[in-house]
Amino acid sequence: MAPQTSIGPGEGQLNLVLWDGYADKSWVDPFTAATGCKVSQKPAGSSDEMVSLMKGGGAGQWDMVSASGDADLRLIYGGDVKPMNTALIPDFANFQTYFKAPGYNTINGIHYGISLQWGPNTLLYSTKKFPNAPTSWSTIYDPANKGLLTVPDNPIQIADAALYLSKTQPDLGIKDPYELTQKQFDASVALLKQQRPLIKKYWALATDEITLFQNGDVVAGAAWPFQTIQLKAAGAAVADTIPIEGATGWADTWMLATKAAHPNCAYLWTKWVSTPKVQAMQALSFGETPVNTKACAEMETLSAGSCAQYHADAPGSYFNTIKFWTTPIATCADGSNNCIPYAQWQAAWTTITA
Amino acid sequence: MRPALLLTPPLAWFVLVYLTSLVLLLITAFWTIDTFTTQIVQVWNLDNFRIILTEPAYRLIIGRTVGIAALVTVTDAILAFPFAYYMAKVASRRTQTILFAAVLLPLWASYLARVYAWILILNHSGILNWSLQSIGLPAANIGYTNTAMWLVFSYIWLPFMIIPTYAALERVPDSLLEAAADLGARRWRAVLDIVVPLAIPGVVAGSIFTFSLTLGDYITPILVYSNIGIANNVPFAAALAVVPVAIMAVYLLIAKRLGAFEAL
């Protein structure tokens, strides 16, 4: 199925499944004014919910989804999203090289969607409890912090444990936290089961974690920069860091539903959110990093120093230090079928959090 | 003929919407999903049930769910009985009306608002810890624990236990108590030998509500505890959903034996 080669007139409507805050009035209103495409939004609470909503190619109900890397391959192999033509997105040429064809949304050179924004999964901590910044992910596995921790309620969290083990137990031979053999997988799951009694609550929504920190129910946890920004804005004594073991990260992609009823509006939207100005606005309002390198200057205009703060000007090598979410599949990088697929990650996650 | 005509629409609705969806749920439970694309594969098998029975995590979850539902039911029964007894047998008409309003008033407020109120009470910097500390006691960190679930559920479902218990006690004729007194039984003896056995069907009827509502509730656990989710695996979720349905079927059979349906 070849993607369309030109963008026709807008259909007047665009239905998006997205992360809360990904279609803010400040850039939706000018878009609707310019294209006539009215935007209706369906915020999803998790990647799993996004995959559920997009089942059956969006069933004609949803045109696009702002999927994160852990959902992408499921949507692609499930036939729910279709290839997109990057030639129709002028700003694609200005994208960070890494995000032009990352493995989680591009297969054999076919682009199933256009990269949007990304961010690292950071270690968030209370500066009252930790006057000296913690430097290692061991903080969230330390029994000394029993009942004072929170981590995301997301099976992909197993990759965070795997990343930690790849540095602390090198003999396990973990190279990629999303490609785990049975032995490596079992070790990661065992670590998380040890962590279970230390957890106050597994957070599902970013606001859950913010409430937990605000009320003093937890003092450390895995988070996104978004929570840090919100908490600091509310005057909470917190800070975040990327520990020495490195970090996992998410990267979102606008993907086009197989049964999209408004493909022209979808392309117009993708074109719009890829422009430096909108990329910068979304980056600063949500607390994430644009994929368009030209957005750096716009960020500086909106908030001086923000470009470097969010690593929007990072060199290509920086992206090797962040392990971006991808759907774990049975096929390992070496071509063998020894890796643990995502369904088993989900099943194991239930046994961890039970 | 007339009653049949009247009954047909609601009955058709019940069969179509309620029973059909239950049957569909049951059928789905025997299917499976493609582990990668999470699309449903319509191949008949018992894998979902085998996993539920063999995987310790699910036994733990089911055990904990039934345990909390039972604990909430017992707690509510113990709290509701003296309250309902006072309402039915001791209080004046006027007091009775006030108590009735007090029992039913919380039901006017949103369930969600009441659960959030409990989060504010139980969390680390909440009213409970603040009160304890102000009288020099150590903080009780029960927010986001099983204790929190037990407390909140017991509070939320209490009216559903009080009302049927009250209805059963109301029906106990005063003449029986007078007769017992005439025959020389003390008050507590009469309550134990006459009132309690006659009130049991009402308590059991109330327990159907407290037990089944706790068993099937999703919102309170996700807010005051943590979440358990079976995302994207509809057949497995269906199989897991069969468990509470089966538990409730057994529970209702026992309740029927104890005469709960006559008390409703």
How would you summarize this macromolecular structure in one to three sentences?
Chain A has 354 residues and is an alpha/beta fold. Chain A has helices spanning 25-35, 47-54, 69-77, 97-100, 157-168, 182-195, 206-214, 225-233, 263-273, 276-286, 295-302, 306-309, 342-353, and strands at residues 13-18, 38-43, 64-68, 81-82, 106-107, 110-111, 114-120, 122-126, 149-150, 220-223, 238-241, 247-257, 289-290, 322-324.
Describe the structure.
The complex is a heterodimer of chains A (354) and B (264). In chain A, 34% of the residues lie in helices and 17% in strands. Chain A is an alpha/beta fold. In chain A, helix 5 crosses helix 6 (182-195), helix 6 runs parallel beside helix 13 (342-353) and helix 7 (206-214) crosses helix 8. Chain A is globular. The N and C termini of chain A lie far apart (43 Å). Chain B is globular and about 75 Å long. Chain B has helices at 2-28, 47-54, 56-90, 93-104, 111-122, 127-134, 146-170, 174-182, 187-216, 219-224, 234-257, 260-263; strands at residues 32-33, 40-41. In chain B, helix 3 (56-90) runs parallel beside helix 7 and helix 9 (187-216) packs antiparallel against helix 11 (234-257). With 264 residues, chain B is mostly helical. In chain B, strand 1 and strand 2 form a beta hairpin. Chain B has 12 helices and 2 strands; from the N terminus they run αββααααααααααα. Chain B has a single domain (56-263), classed as MetI-like fold (Orthogonal Bundle), CATH 1.10.3720. Classes of the chains: A alpha/beta (354), B mainly alpha (264).
